[in-house]
Design goal:
The structure holds two protein chains of two kinds. By secondary structure, chain A is of the alpha/beta class. Chain A has eight helices and ten strands. Chain A folds into two domains: 125 residues, 2-Layer Sandwich (Nucleotidyltransferase, domain 5), CATH 3.30.420.40; 144 residues, Nucleotidyltransferase, domain 5, CATH 3.30.420. Chain A has a five-stranded mixed sheet with strand order 3-2-1-4-5. Chain B folds into two domains: 103 residues, ATPase, nucleotide binding domain (Nucleotidyltransferase, domain 5, 2-Layer Sandwich), CATH 3.30.420.40; 144 residues, Nucleotidyltransferase, domain 5 (2-Layer Sandwich). Chain B is built from nine helices and ten strands. In chain B, helix 3 packs parallel to helix 5 and helix 3 packs antiparallel against helix 6. The longest helix of chain B is centred in the last third of the chain and has 22 residues. Chains A and B meet through helix 3 and helix 5 of A and helix 5 of B.
Chain lengths: 272, 268
């Protein structure tokens, strides 16, 4: 059997998914997935993620018919057959995972993107913040680091918050000092963490409103694992946030689907 | 008669003790840390020790900086903007504009010949262009903050740092290093980036010569050079740059003391 691999080389993590080169519906679509840390060797990360995802699908490198790359490191993927921008891939992947979704928010380590999408996955408008960490996953990471917590502890702790405290710093770096001050002043860790999520949610909400928020609203990207942040976002938006177990793989899946479409076009086109 | 100024900054706390002639007789400095009150007490004690006097010989103390209300011995508080202007004009009488780059904020201040503030503008919303930006670069490279300025001066190749965000610049630096770019070239780019941000802040207060550079970052020779190159003008910077706020506070304290206001009850 031959496969198409989509790889999404993000600033923090590189994600890969494996789909069949033809067919595959619902649960039969994503056959393998893998996430690795990107670090600095972008191509190396892409290779590792692709191989691990293939292994997860019970396949090997030779079974890979087509490789589509997206994410900020897409041009560094040596083996790629095509590279596609993140916005297009995320929209395509998200619509596959959550077909009804009309407005999408993709929050990664360094980016936040709000996207209006048609049922076909076509993007009609988008807004992004990629200039500063104020509304991205790195903001939470910095706060967690300042509090000497692991990222996987953050969500569960934040959900215990009773009265989230106000985090006034927009800058992730300045927020670290503010957070330490809150600790000194006797605020609880859950209240500080959830305050951080509320503050990020405020900025994400205004980004989403800029594209014209239309329900259903879906979340993709690495941050979709953070339940406490999702809770804060739902409160701010006053609506349910749609998720899918593969939300973090939306970009990689979109790349795989668009790549597969491209591969099919190539095979169907008359030989030159 | 002695007076003191205590400047509690986000990163460091500084103290200056003046004698009755306004001469600097003692200096104290330490990291602010979490215990702001203790930091103030300790730097004042250190400055007194250097001056060879007892703490109780200080007749009037003024607190400044973001932690000024938590200076236990403070008789009164004055904003760091006024204090920097006062201190800078004392050390460099020709000063008309001040660039103060501290740990978490950057200020452009315009002053008159008396050291009174005419206009100011500041960035305290984001760490870009502040000492934190430099500290982040130093940390990523495994260098001490004191090493990066001299290191940047060795640069031979122009390299542009494109990220404004301190968080993102850390990744950018690591990327540049992994691509084999030289440490000194990257650092020079980091210094130029901050100089660019400083220049736009200075424009907003309509900078006039002379420019005096204050705050902890002014002790960084790479930063002084980058600012001078960017603005095309000489910059006053010296060993006491980071004590400028504390010096200004101590001068205000001396003026109050000489005016006979040395009792907490009298001023409140």
């Amino acid at each position: 059997m031959s496969y198409v691999v989509g790889v999404d080389v993000g600033s923090r993590q590189t994600k890969a998914v494996v789909i069949p080169a033809a067919g595959g519906e619902g649960d039969g679509l994503v056959l393998g997935r893998a996430t690795v840390y990107t670090h600095f060797d972008l191509n190396g990360a892409a290779e590792r993620a692709a191989l691990e995802a293939l292994a997860d699908a019970g396949a090997v490198h030779g079974d890979m018919e087509y490789l589509a790359a997206t994410g900020y490191g897409r041009y560094q993927v040596a083996e790629r057959d095509i590279q596609i921008t993140e916005i297009t891939c995320h929209a395509r992947g998200a619509v596959e995972l959550m077909p009804d979704v009309r407005t999408l928010l993709d929050v990664g380590a360094q980016n936040a993107r709000a996207v209006k999408v048609e049922p076909s996955g076509r993007v009609t408008s988008f807004r992004m913040n990629d200039k500063c960490a104020s509304g991205a996953g790195r903001f939470v990471e910095r706060v967690a680091k300042a509090l000497e917590l692991d990222m996987d502890q953050v969500s569960a702790l934040a959900l215990q918050a009773k009265e989230p405290c106000e985090i006034s710093s927009i800058c992730a770096v300045l927020a670290e000092s503010e957070v330490i001050n809150h600790v000194t002043n006797g605020e609880t860790i859950p209240d500080i963490l959830q305050g951080t999520h509320v503050s990020i949610s405020d900025r994400l909400t205004s980004l989403v409103r800029q594209v014209g928020l239309e329900e259903p609203f879906g979340l993709t990207g690495g941050v979709s694992h953070n339940r406490a942040l999702i809770h804060a976002l739902e409160q701010r938006l006053g609506m349910t946030v749609c998720l899918h177990a593969d939300s973090a793989y939306a970009g990689a899946l979109g790349a795989a689907l668009l790549g597969r479409q491209r591969a099919l076009q190539l095979t169907q086109a008359p030989a030159a | 008669m002695y007076t003191a100024g205590v400047d509690v900054g986000s990163t460091q706390t500084k103290s200056i003790v003046l004698d009755e002639n306004g001469r600097i007789v003692g200096r104290g400095i330490r990291m602010t840390g979490a215990d702001v009150v203790r930091a103030g007490d300790e730097v004042l004690a250190a400055a007194c020790e250097q001056a060879g006097i007892e703490t109780h010989e200080i007749v009037y103390t003024i607190g400044t900086g973001y932690g000024r209300f938590r200076v236990a011995t403070g008789d009164d508080q004055v904003t760091e903007i006024s204090c920097h202007a006062k201190g800078a004009v004392r050390l460099h009488p020709g000063t008309r504009t001040i660039l103060d780059i501290g740990g978490q904020d950057t200020k452009a201040i315009r002053t008159n010949a008396e050291g009174e503030v005419v206009d100011f503008c500041m960035n305290d919303k984001c760490a870009a262009g502040t000492g934190r930006f430099l500290a982040a670069a130093a940390e990523v490279m495994g260098l001490d903050v004191s090493e990066i300025g001299p290191e940047s001066l060795k640069s031979t190749e122009q390299l542009k740092i494109t990220n404004v965000c301190t968080v993102f610049v850390e990744s950018e630096i690591l990327n540049q290093l992994s691509r084999g770019r030289k440490r000194e070239d990257i650092l020079a780019g980091v210094h130029r980036s901050i100089a660019g941000r400083s220049a736009s802040l200075l424009r907003r207060v309509s900078m006039e010569d002379e420019l005096t550079f204050t705050g902890g970052v002014a002790r960084n020779p790479g930063m002084v050079k980058a600012v001078e190159e960017r603005l095309g003008t000489h910059v006053n910077a010296d060993e006491d740059s980071q004590y400028m706020g504390a010096l200004g506070a101590a001068i205000f304290a001396l003026e109050r003391a000489q005016a006979g206001v040395h009792d907490r009850e009298v001023i409140s």
